[in-house]
Amino acid sequence: MPSQRELFFRYLAQTSPSPLAIEIAYAQGVYLYTSEGKKIIDLISGIAVSNVGHRHPKVQQAIENQLNKYWHVMVYGELIQSPQNELAYHLCQTLPSHLNNVYFTNSGSEAIEGAMKLAKRFTQRTQIITCYNAYHGSSQGALSISGNEKFKQAYRPLLPDIQYIHYGSFSDLDKITRRTAAVFVETIQGEAGVKIACTHYFQALQCRCREVGALLVLDEIQSGFGRTGKFWAFEHFAVQPDILVCAKGMGGGMPIGAFISSQEIMRTLTYNPILGHITTFGGHPVSCAASLATLQVIQEENLLAQVEPKAQLFRELLKHPKILNFRNIGLMIALEFENFATLKPIIDKAIQLGVLTDWFLYCDNAMRIAPPLIITESQIREACQLILQAIEAGIKHN
Fold this sequence. Notes:
This protein is α/β, with parallel strands linked by helices. The chain is built from twelve helices and 15 strands.
């Protein structure tokens, strides 16, 4: 039998010429353990996925309980399944009253696809407005409304009638017209390197959408489920979307996503045609059970109140002349360096020292830090000390 490394490179489709290729034996809490027994602090949570840490006991127990009942039984929306029902109910309790109807998917990209169809179907309009440097996923529709040409050019033609605006720009709001079905905006721009617009912008954006009858769709695939210190990032900005999209951190490590709207809007997927949006594995009962447990852990362990103090500790400890900027909202953090050539050796050295970080797709000079919300003060101190050591080593490398 070939080694795991040989199998990886021979039989798995590769997404880059130089993957990290760290062989993971198991994971627990904030740590990854390699096949050689090395312990690595996971500061990216599988890209904002493991918000309650790896293999949280309550999430694991919920998974095991559901495994003992049933797994897949029928395509989403046909049979009454308690994991879906209970998760939808508890999700809606965290949201404004008009966001009271949930459609479960397998991933964030699929949730975006569903939200795009829903917006077009409800408004009977075709134009979708999105932001430059937005990232909404890699499927055809999601890629069409993502805002970085470098990652799109090889796959054109994509969907037509897409209009771009600058995130945070008041002057661009006039581009939202009565032709616009929906405006898709990441509440916090993730792959752009944690870019944050002001409250006045979001309120003006919502006002303009209402004025012309366009739907406001907020993408909280990265920023939802407590990542920013609120359960939903839009709570920071006194704004309420017409459609909310979530995934990543909602599953506790299991694959799940959702788009959420009002019953009135969501009902349009039910008829003319019936089965207007369907999915085989969306709302998988095991994933739903894990998601409900994740939601409850965030609430019961009071993780939201811990986010800002932990973020502030990162800010206090991560100071170095090579760090040009520290951007964050809660535990969604970007450390900006001069360029990718400076950053990449630092990331590589940090992994050698026992800390996993990353860079951003559209901001490759910034280090991504998005640790599990359960990370402790002592773990933060250890991780920051190792990052600073990696920076010093990176200076010598350059």
